[in-house]
Amino acid sequence: MNNQNRNKFIKNSSNYVININRLLKNIKFKCKVDYIRSEKSSIIIVTDKITSALDLQTIKRYVKSSNKIDTNKVKTLCFPQSKLYLKIIGLPYFLNNSKTLVSLDIIEDVIKNNHIFNNINIASRPKIIKFLPKSDMAIIWLDVWDSQNKMNTKRLINCCFNVGKYIATIHRANMNPSVPQYKKCWKWDHLTYVCRVQGLKCVKCNGPHLTEHHEEFLKCCKANAKSNSPRLETKAGKLCFHSFKCINCKGDH
Known about the structure:
- The chain is of the alpha+beta class.
- The protein contains six helices and ten strands, in the order ααββαβαβββαββββα.
- Strands 3, 4, 5, 6, 7 and 8 form a six-stranded antiparallel beta sheet that branches. Strands 1-2 form a two-stranded antiparallel sheet. The protein has a two-stranded antiparallel sheet with strand order 9-10.
- A hairpin with a 2-residue loop joins strand 1 (33-39) and strand 2.
């Protein structure tokens, strides 16, 4: 609903509450509207009980029959939604036995083109992590919007689908408290509430300083003529060119 429609509807909201409740009473529904409020590009009609599909249809007809608004700008009414959490297992972390990581674009393309995800409203981009630190399999975390009765999500639980030669399975998941990479200690698949690091760490060397202060604090950027191979100072305004061991994979990058 556009701003003009929303403002007109809210202006007469007290009358609309009375009229909608009269309609619901006439068809012997026990649900009643408490109040109407606006939010962003929509209006929210708050009821005293969980509404049924018939309740929703009655309210929808009334909203669209109002002579105060442009009905062409009114989108379909829907039940309140909540965020639910799924995980997809059975897919490789690397593509075709190579060192190339499976990408979000591939996963999103699979979800977009698979019929089992029809009518599923994705809440955010999927997250890909390793099943275990030394595993070559992935877990795909998927957050979706669904009605409070979870009808769309329930039909996905334990469903399987093909991705190339692999068979992926969808499971229910708890709220995922991790982030792809925690930007305090820079560890992958790390639970934020159990991190024991007291301060921010450098993304380059994992030292106890901010990344932008790396050249100022670390010895590798200071000149040392007495070392086995004389070390030159990193010039002011230049980035450190030294390589470090990755905190996650221990590789040189």
